[in-house]
Each structure stands twice: as C-alpha cells, then as structure tokens.
Amino acid sequence: MNSWMGKFLLLLIGSLFALQAMAGDKPVFTENGVALRGYDTVAYFTQAKPVKGKKSFVVNYKGAKWHFSSAANQQLFKENPKKYAPQYGGHCAFAIANDKLVAVDPKAFTIVNDKLYLNYSLSVRKRWAKDIPGYIADGDQNWAKL
After folding, report:
1. Confidence (pTM)
2. Per-residue model confidence as pLDDT tens digits over 28-78
3. Crossing angle (nearest 10°) for helices 122-129 and 132-145
4. Is the CB of residue 14 less than 8 Å from the CB of residue 58?
5. Cβ atoms within 10 A of the Cβ of 26, count?
6. Does residue 14 sit within a domain?
C-alpha cells in the first residue's frame, strides 16, 4: 500500500508541475492541432500573402503543428519562431483588443512593425484598420492578462 501511495503522490506532484509550466504559455489558435489553419506563417513576411503550408514541412511549437510551404521557410521559423509567429497566438487581433479569444481567417492579415496580426474576417480587418495603434495597445494589455 505504501508503494501505491508513493507512486500516486509522485504522479500527482508531477502533474501539478506540468500544469504550472503550461500555465505560463499563452493559447495558440489551432484547428485539429494545426496553427493558422495550415498556412505558412513565414510566407506572410517573405511573400506578403497567405500561402498554404504542406504537411511535409512541419514544426511543433507551443503545442501546435505549424505547416510551411518550403524547407527554407520551415528553417527560418525554426531559427526564430518569435519573429514569425503571429501576435496573440494567432487569435483575432480585433477580438483580443476587445478582451475575447476568437478564431481567424488566415487571409485577413496585416503586418505592423514586422509583427503579424490576424483577424476573424476581411470585414473585421477593415474595422481593425481604423485604429490599429489603439487596438494593438488594447490587445497587448488584454493579452498580458491571459
């Protein structure tokens, strides 16, 4: 019985440490474990447009699978994921500014000061574009509270 209880306590303590470690990570928007609905986050910067990634070029980052359109983009992301990963974990920037977590349309994107921001839809992106600095300031504050 002591052996069983010791194993149980060890498992419980290990689980608590794992939960604590995960608590520091911000949520990444995924569908079926795939970030950005499979779009290549590096391509937004290198090609200035959304490009669908391939399952043959994948990086696991922050609990999600990130797809890339080429080995070169995959390597760029591996070298500096923070540079290419979208702001707010890939959630809608307009929604984050309004204190909500909402999915995105990878085609509704904007790059501001070398940072990628995504929106729920093209129409939401138009609303967000009316006060990008204000929405980013609000979004940064709200994201920090998560």
Report:
1. 0.82
2. 999 999 999 999 999 999 999 999 999 999 999 999 999 999 999 999 999
3. 110
4. no
5. 11
6. no
Q: How far is the CA of 22 from the CAs of 27, 58, 63, in angstroms?
A: 10, 22, 10
Please indicate, yes or no, if residue 134 is contained in any of the structural domains: yes
* H, E, C per residue of the chain: CHHHHHHHHHHHHHHHHHHHHHHCCCCCCEECCEEHHHECCCHHHHCCCCCECEEEEEEEECCEEEEECCHHHHHHHHHCHHHHCCHHHHCEHHHHHCCCCCCCEEEEEEEECCEEEEECCHHHHHHHHCCHHHHHHHHHHHHHHC
pLDDT of residue 24: 52
pLDDT of residue 56: 98
Residue 141's domain spans which residues?
27-145
Q: 16-30, pLDDT tens digit by residue?
A: 333 333 445 788 999
Instruction: Tell me whether residue 125 is in a domain.
Output: yes
| Band of pLDDT at residue 101, cut at 50, 70 and 90 | very high
Give domain status of residue 4, yes or no.
no
Cα–Cα dist 8/5, whole Å: 5
Number of domains in the chain: 1
